[in-house]
Each structure stands twice: as structure tokens, then as C-alpha cells.
Amino acid sequence: MEEITAFYDLDLEHDRLSRGLGLLEFARTLDVLGRLLPEPPATVLDIGGGTGAYARELLRLGHRVHFLDLIPGHVERVRADPALAALASVTLGDARALPYATASADAALVMGPLYHLMAAEDRAKALAEAARVVRPGGLVAVTAIPRAAAICGDFKHGLDEEDYSRAIRERAYTSGLYLNPEGRPGFFTTAYFHHPADLEEELGAAGLRDVTLYALEGPASKLLADPALELSDPLRRDGLLTALRLVERDPALLGMSAHLLGVGWR
């Protein structure tokens, strides 16, 4: 975990969802969650919440939000942010051992930890914990990165470091293991990339029912030259989001999205 912590200590996460393709990931995640979360006020656990982007929106909607993250710098940012002062709690903690009581929340969002847990047993622990802390009928929602994302990302952004990139993307696709052995800038840190069917199986193994996968960015992650431009114009934004809703559950397109949202109910 040391290289993962070092990567996030670079403080790259605080504005990731406010630029580039992160804008579309953020908009689409809120779009899908807006259809699935209970009406406010609900108790929502933001597990692996980064620097509070989703927590801020959940508070704005009127939910009672508990925040947890493994990275000390993220927790410090959240505690210092006046816009997050209404959080019910802010905890430095691990998704595999949640400090919340059983059946104490209406929803648990695991928006990142799953792709930094390399071992299957660790992912199973995190999912079991998320399922434990929501009430019967409660929602568990997790984000994952599909295996093909390493291939699609390389070919969209160029092949200037092809000798280095090739082994990374081929390993990620064939095994799920994304490794940046030299820690080169511009590459991700140690991560696990899912095949969509494996994500669905892991959610089901945690005892969740009605498991559904959503492609967040879908084909737009490969086709949009300027996500900010598309999302800043109301008409173009509506057209883009409407199109992505149309294909969001198409099994043939799940693997080409930059991120998946997997959901299930306890």
C-alpha cells in the first residue's frame, strides 16, 4: 500500500473530478445515484471519499453523511473545508474494517477503495463490510475500473512511452493487475482492474441482491475530445447524458467505459 499512499500524497485527487474526463465521471455518478438513493434525509456512508466531492453534493441534497478515507491528507482537507462542516463524522479508516454499527445506514458508497485492493479476499472484506453496515433494503454502490481501460486510455492519449506502456496495459487486461513499476508520472498507481462479470460476481458474493452494473462514461470516454465543452453547454450536456443513459447497462459496452458503478441491495 506504500506506493498507493505515496501517489495520493501528491494531492492529485482534490481536483480530479473537476477537470477533463473526471467531469463526466462526476456528472454521471451523480446522475445514476440520483435515481437509486433514497429520498433525503438518508444516512449515507462515503467510504473512500477522497477529498469530499461526493460528500459535498450529498450534503447539499440534504442527506446525513459520514465520511471515511484511508489517506491522511484527504481527511485533513475534508476537516478543513467549511463546505463539509455539516458532515456527521469524518474518520481516517479502512474500508475493510468500518467503524459503523451494523444496519446503521441507508446507503454505503465505496467510490474508490475497491480498485486499490489487489487481493480478492481484501475486496471481499470491503464489500462484506459495506453490506453489513446498511440496513435491510439498503443500497451499496461501488466504483471499479474495467480491464480494457488501460488499453483504451493508452491509445486515446498517445503512445509516447510505448515500450513502458505495453507491459502495463497487457498485464492489466490479462490479470487485472495494473502496475507502474518505475512510478512514472502520468501513469496510475498500483490498482486492480475488474472484468465486468467478476465485479458482478463479487457483489453477489457479498450477499447483495439485484446487482446491476452501469457504464459511467461509456463510449464517451473514448470519443469526447473536450468533456468540459460538452458539459458546459446545457443542450449538449443534456444530449450527452441522455445518450449515456440509453447505453449505460448494455453488456456489450460495459468494458469500454473508464469506470463502472456496481450496485446492489442488502
TrEMBL record:
Residues 45-141 form the Methyltransferase type domain. InterPro entries: Methyltransf_11, SAM-dependent_MTases_sf. It holds the Pfam family Methyltransf_11. GO terms for molecular function: S-adenosylmethionine-dependent methyltransferase activity. This is Methyltransferase type 11 domain-containing protein.
